Amino acid sequence: MIERAIGAGDLWPLKADQLRDDLDLFCDVVEVLHDLVARPADRTFHSYSGCGWHHSDFSIEAGRSVYRWQVNKLLAQSDLGLRLAEEGEDIGRMVTVTADARHELVDALVATEGETGDQIRHAVALFRARGADRHQKRSAVVTLARILEGRRDLLQTKLLRKDEGALFMIANQFDLRHQNEAQKSDYDEAFLDWVFWWYMATIELTDRLASRDD
Question: Among residues of the chain, what percentage have pLDDT more than 90?
Fold first, then answer.
């Protein structure tokens, strides 16, 4: 089943050296096991011929939750910089680790309801995917820019006009949305990281401003 899900042969039984030498394979196996695991809620003991315990009443959700908790404790002791996502569109997928404050920001925003929540979860999944490339990160930033565009009136009211203008100047002048010859496209990928977290923080700020007005 694991070999079929991953599309690779000779995986079972799992071999430590094989997983250690191939990070992508290791991550694939961790993700597939997450999807297959379940936790039993009951068990009975069968003493005949040393048979042992028989487990039943399996919960997929509980099993996956415990699995993520246990695996992430182990990953936190490594230098891989990866963990299993515990929320969002990419739950159960290996994603890049962020600082605690940013992790808390993601936790808060992916819980957003409705279409905006769907957009945020999609942007987060694109941005933090293991091996996310420039195109994926750019798409994530564009998605967040669309959310902020819909809140432009609130931003104009609550922020200094030059601050509000800077938000969209970046998206428009740095080859993020309306691609044309006048835009700058030779920026470092770290710039996308900065814009992504700036936009995420601004979305959280506008949530608080809107809630305060209500």
Answer: 54
Model pTM?
A: 0.81
Burial zone of 188 (CB within 10 Å; 0-12 exposed, 13-18 middle, 19+ buried): exposed
Distance (Å, whole) CA 103 – CA 126: 15
| 174-200 mean pLDDT | 70
**Cα torsion 68, 74, 80, 81: sign:** positive
User: Domain locations in the chain?
Assistant: 97-214
CA 196 from centroid of its chain's CA atoms = 13
pLDDT at 67 over 70: yes
* The residue type at 127: F
Residue 117 banded pLDDT, cuts 50, 70, 90: very high
Name the token pair of 80: 């891989």
Neighbours of 135 (CB within 10 A): 9
Alpha-carbon span 98 to 83, nearest angstrom: 10
Query: How many CB atoms within 10 Å of residue 122?
Result: 17
CB atoms within 10 A of CB 98: 17
Average pLDDT over residues 153-181: 64
Distance set, CA 85 to CA 39, 120, 139 (Å) = 19, 15, 20
